[in-house]
Amino acid sequence: MKRKITSSDVAAYVGVSRSAVSRAFTKGASIHAAKRDRILKAAKELGYHPNIFARTLSTPGQNKRSNLVAVLVAEVSNCYESYLFEKLSTELQKHGKQPILMNIKHPEEMDEAILRLSGYQVDGVIAIAGSLPEESFVKCLELSLPMVTLGRADDSGHVPFVKTDNFESGRLVAKYFASEGVQKVGYVSGLEDGMASRERHEGLKSVFQELGLEQPVLIPAGSYSYGAGYEAAKQNLQQIQKLDGLFCACDALALGVSDCCKIEANMQIPNDLRLVGCDDIPQAAWEGYKLTTVAQPVDSIVMQVISLLDKLWSDEEDIPSIVKLAPNLVIRNT
User: Fold this and answer.
1) pTM of the shown model
2) Does the pLDDT value for residue 35 go beyond 80?
3) Which residues belong to any copy of the HTH lacI-type domain (predicted)?
């Protein structure tokens, strides 16, 4: 088998020192441009790839950066969370950072994950985990890990939190239904303790109360998955058939509900039921669905997260504890 090419091989091939090879791969290091070009060309010819992680750990000084940013995701299979991770990872890489995905399925796994992150020498943590325990915020602060969360707010205000105005999302849907003459409405909720799901429901109810209309029927799904939406609709088909409109806590639920209503009850959407989702994941725009939904401003969310991390790394003062962004109703075919 061909042995692994080392920096010594590149140095010998070019006729330079190992430190010159190291400087050629270090951003901002002092090295003549022509020499760097010769080293990089030789490295490509020989198939040399530097161990960036090991080199970072061996770099002296307190201001060293690993350029690793951990992204904690509660449900990788969740359409919105995977979509958000894709956007975050792309933007992090544009900023010279390497994202590390950590799938945290249960709250009790968080402590161990955070301790591992400290060992990896990550520069920061982005948590997309709605069930993130309060103790996790404390542990990150104790380990001096700069953190931004997208799942739930830190009640102490020490960890910056970026969110879409979920209450307003519910109000946007309620006003849309009212403008279309839709009065008998249901709400398919997600996680029982999910902050976003509860806030969207409260926003929906507030407008119906203001208008003196009948309060929305609550249909719990228990999670934010397509399957949960399909099953919730199947178990409540008779009730759903009496409704004019249905708002789902997320798009994945709405897509499951849509397919169930068509397959199990031969319902026509939107003729028999107005259906609205939330998030605006890529699948919502697919030709088979064309789902009307409340779009989260994902690009703005990502840029706010990067900005907050930059502020944390720079030890800036007056970093906002909560950044709330406005949603947008996207009207399609449902």
Assistant:
1) 0.78
2) yes
3) 5-59
